[in-house]
Amino acid sequence: MPKLIIKDRSGKKSEIEFNSNFTLMEILRDNDYGIEASCGGCCACATCHVYVDEKWTNKLKNMDDDEESMLDQAFDIKNNSRLSCQIDLSEELDGLEIEIAPE
Amino acid sequence: MIEKTDVAIIGAGPVGLFAVFELGLLNIKCHLIDNLDKVGGQCAELYPEKPIYDIPSRPIVTGQELTDELIKQINPFKPQFHLNQQVDKITKTETGWIVETNIGTKVEAKCIVVAAGAGSFVPRKPPIENIENFENKNVFYAVRDKSMFSGKNLLIAGGGDSALDWTNELSKDSNVSLIHRRKDFRAAPDSVSKMQELETKGKIKFLKGQIKTISNTEDSKIILQYENDEEKSQIEVDYLLPFFGLKMELGPIADWGLNLHENLIKVDTEKFETSTPSIFAIGDINWYPGKLKLILSGFHESALMAQEVFKYCFPDKKNIFRYTTSSKELQKKLGV
Questions:
Q1: What range does the domain containing B189 cover?
Q2: Secondary element (H or E) of residue A96
């Protein structure tokens, strides 16, 4: 199974396997990474904020306006900030490295 | 003045609204209290335009449509709404509860139904160290009395409607700077073009970046350091008004002595009653083994909760089960 490499809020790195056809948020929430995702994944809050490792930013689908706008309500925004509910996982993302943004 | 009713429902989201229907069929009257300025909860506040596909018999419905139709459905039962206020305190009486809000509304009821979703919507606060020390002195998350800002230097932070609308409005009498992480804004296009016009005329100043620190000066002004990809800088102002939308938190409910499970209220799955008799919890705010946070689960929980609330409201009466399709009396209540 394809894997994700995740740095949690304490700085600890771990690997988890994922099924394609889920969003990154759904996998993070299911694995108790402290992702609030209060709107449930419809890009209507900003509580599933992650940083995507620079090696991977170009391999993801570009952010749409909705996601970019929603990020306005998140804090500690960086150039590699994304909302994890807007990242669809697929086999091609095997090895994707991300970091959970501060609450 | 204390208003009397049968049930005080805390939260006017879809599940709180449908509870009015299930209770109403059993002749139980309701008051609903919600922190938002409108009914519908998350459906109306977070995703009014977004489609929901898992409401039985509605292949597609938006958050706002669902809210509007629920209001139509419960209208025959004449629920009373108390919006823009949060229940701060509940007090046990001999016959039930007195529920009191932060603006002094008091409702006396035989039962309380907590249908508060993920909790109250409260302003999202930027994670700036020590910002709480400046709140309600130099930092305000809402504008209650705009005259206090007259002639002052303000920094407004954010890129949504509140940030832009207040930038445009307060720039009439104050010296306003607007800070946002990028030069695009999600606010309504009209507000954005008005703001840009004010900037061109030199009436307001736009700063690109994110605020990093706050500190005070000797004459009780504040200095805010901010940075973007190119530079770090700072600005001194009288007031900071951050507008970063709303988030949800459990709030005062956590202090009512109800048994919790990770910030959710534990209930049984027969009556959806909490650890305190005559207080019920339905919808996203409750927890029981197997709980799924779905609107349809909340609807089911409403119906079962109502059966038990009936016993508190009419201890001497027997509740005989009936269908709306066949009962003339239920149809009369519905006005059909």
A1: 125-244
A2: strand A96-100
